[in-house]
Amino acid sequence: MVQSARATLLNRLAQGPATKDQLTEILGGSRERTFYHLAVLRDLGVIQTGRSPSDDTQVYELVPVPSLSGLEEIDIPHVVQEVGSGLTLKRILSEGVAALRAKTLDARDGHLMCIAENVDERAFEEVNNILDDALERIDDALARNRRRLAASQTKPIRMTLSIANFESPGIA
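Below the sequence we write its predicted structure tokens.
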């Protein structure tokens, strides 16, 4: 239900800026509920506030998605290229932007999240181990899926799964 409300807000904002009242009307709930979801989306960096050029009222709008036309020119350190992480990151960005443009990013009950957290060595290792276990289970599920698809006439659905766990410098 929470993801559905935020998806509804994002889908409306994909059509253009809207006021808090317009967004509250779309959700059909209380102003407080709408404000809460708008605050979460703003904190995630997905939406921003602006001013309507016609009457200077505050509006919410999607944060512009940068063009990836120059993505192939990103300078990737040689050591990263050797392990493929740089190419993987480019693919994640390309698939994500394609999903945004096709408006399929929120079409299903998927998951999109980014957690940047200060952790100690133990927590970093624990999370890494959890992700390793999850990746094994995902590999098993995808192998079963390939067998089902091969044995049926079911139309496949394109799914992108991106998991990243890395030490980052942080963003101010």
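The beta strands are 47-51, 58-62.
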